Amino acid sequence: MKIKLKAYAKLNLLLDITGIMPNGYHYLDNVTQSVDIGDVLTVTAEKSGQFSCHITCDRSDIPTDERNIVYKAAKKFCDKAGFNISCDTDIEKHVPLMGGMGGSSVDGAGTLFALNRIFDNPLSEEELLRLGEEIGADVPLCYVGGTLYSYSSPESVGTEAINTDTNAVFLCIQPDFSCNTGAAYKLYDKAPIPPYGKTAQYLDKLKNGGVISACQDQYNIFTLLYNDNRIEEIKAELIRAGAVASEMTGSGSVVFGIFETFEKAEAAKAEISRKYSNIFTCKPIDKGIIIL
Q: For 108-145, how does the pLDDT look when each residue is reduced to its tens digit (9 = 90+)?
């Protein structure tokens, strides 16, 4: 059986490290928004006596062996479902890699979704989300999609779907440099930054007023940790072009501006594209995956 689907990217509207876990990982506050740019996956699979996963991709720089998250997701699925499969997955890549938009996570989420549908849903959504967590922290967020607030602390861990007015258009710029996430976490570990004091205020504005209303309180701790003038310049350039707010997504390096209308975002894109080649608009959506 074959399934073709689109797995959507995400932007982090707010991202904060709130502490260090005993195992060295980090507690996070995280607000994500799915956007209408996504990878197209075509998955063909059947039961088999031996596990195999063949991957093709339109990007030659993406590995197509066991290093690919599609392979990892397929193997996790089989181990949990209790049977082997032979699967072929083609990836049509649209989500930027190493940009903080879930560039690989969307493919992991899409693979879990497709295989569960192909084999008549042997796993519950809760089980799929747990498998996703084992593959990567953003995989469950990309699977569920929409506007989500996820949090972790010594007291509680959870994810809350937020029903909000997604009254915004995003203009995204992927610069010609990447960010060192591991180095940023090490900087935090040496000198932790106090938790952001406006998360509750941001969530209240988001729930009651929408993305535009809340955007002045958006925050990304990685912007502070990197302390990179190049990121700050892109943020400032988006503001000068008419964005009501701008920030980096995830651990970078994509920077996005929030605009009130598509026309304003497109006008800014026309102006800024003379300086940045990888620039695109996207809109909020309320889902993570759709079947095509």
A: 999 999 999 999 999 999 999 999 999 999 999 999 99
Between strands 169-173 and 157-161, the pairing is unpaired
Cβ contacts of 78 within 8 Å, gap of 6 or more: 51, 84, 85
DSSP 8-state secondary structure symbol assigned to residue 99:
S
Domain boundary at 119, 154, 189, which?
Answer: 154
Q: Give the distance, in angstroms, between the CA of residue 150 and the centroid of all CA atoms in the same chain.
A: 13
Query: Would you say 222 and 52 are in contact if contact means Cβ atoms under 8 Å apart?
Result: no
- List, in sequence order, every beta strand (DSSP E) within 65-186: 85-92, 147-152, 157-161, 169-173
Q: What is the pLDDT of residues 65-101, one digit of tens each?
A: 999 999 999 999 999 999 999 999 999 999 999 999 9
pLDDT tens for 221-259 read: 999 999 999 999 999 999 999 999 999 999 999 999 999
Q: Which sequence positions are flagged as catalytic? A: 10, 138
- The one-letter amino acid code at 146 reads G
Average pLDDT taken over every residue of the chain: 96
Of the three residues 106, 121, 154, the one that is the final residue of a domain is: 154
Q: Which domain holds residue 17?
A: 2-154
